[in-house]
Amino acid sequence: MDLIHKIMPKKHRREVLKSLALAAPAIFMAPNLFAVSNLPKAKVSIGACDWSMGMHSNPEAMGVASEIGLDGVQVSLGKVDNDMHLRKREIQQQYKTLSKKYKVKISSLAIGELNQVPYKSDPRTDQWVSDSIDVAHDMNCEVILLAFFGNGDLKNDEEGTKRVIEKLQKAASKAEDAGIILGIESWLDAKEHVRILEEVNSPNVQVYYDVANSNKMGYDIYKEIKWLGKDRICEFHMKENGFLLGEGLIDFQKVRKSIETLNYKGWVHIEGAVPQGKSMKESYIHNLNYLREIYK
After folding, report:
1. What is the distance between the alpha carbons of residues 94 and 86, in angstroms, rounded to a whole number?
2. pLDDT of the residue at 187
3. 209 bridge partner residues
4. DSSP codes, 123-187
5. Nearest to residue 88, comparing CAs of 37, 142, 53, 138?
């Protein structure tokens, strides 16, 4: 600006400065995949799954999330190898300290290890789920994702489904007392999920809705979200397999419209959505900017 004042007449200076001022918003809003998201906060809170960031059950995920510009991190309870270590007070404190340092929230918990060690058949999982309710309460988050894929798949498994219903009925009482929601994520369609919810008969057992998983199964995700409604969906995964958000199979504008019918104001978490050859960080900055733009 000093150079402009020195070499340009006053009248012309005003015109140039005016042009720069008009251009500034456009420059600010231009997409930049290599810089932290600078778009305004969205109507929903946007986080990411720690495993999708390559930081499964690692407290340093909070710093990575801060570099991306995320609002929060969905944190894994742990793995068999580390004895589901988020149950330990010292590990919880590491997350809390880094959450405060980086101003990134612990948005919700997840027990992805249930894909290898099934809730429907392995007795160890009863303690994991029970303990996760205490952890969620202590870490001030409201939702725990219970995964039902791989070895834990419930699709076309009537006996496994009945066993899960029995176990959830027991866990739900503790969840209700703690104000924690247990979210089922699985290959089941909306009606199959509701069958479980109705038999468990607790407002604290809900569906954790993953748009890419449901789309892969051929379900009409836009209708399912509306039909399930705000009292049956606890959180969402905004996910693509092998594509950036907005460049794959899911119409995220239609997803937004479906979610808006619920008056949903909670968390959405980015999962997957890293194309081959692209870095996680570059992809997630793009994905975050994309979601903030459509949820502004």
Report:
1. 10
2. 98
3. 236
4. THHHHHHHHHHHHHHHTT--EEEEEE-GGG--TT-HHHHHHHHHHHHHHHHHHHHHT-EEEEEES
5. 138
The total number of residues written for the chain in this structure: 296
| pLDDT at residue 42 in the model | 57
38-294 belongs to CATH 3.20.20.150: yes
What was the pLDDT predicted at 43?
83
> Residue 38's pLDDT is what?
53
Q: Which two tokens stand for residue 165?
A: 């219903």
Burial string for 143-180 (b: 16+ CB within 10 Å, else e) reads bbbbbbbeebbbeebeebbebbbebbeebbebbeeeeb
Q: Does the pTM of the predicted model rise above 0.90? A: no
Report domain extents, the chain. 1-29, 38-294
Give residue 156's identity as a one-letter amino acid code: N
The stretches in the chain having pLDDT less than 50 are 1-35
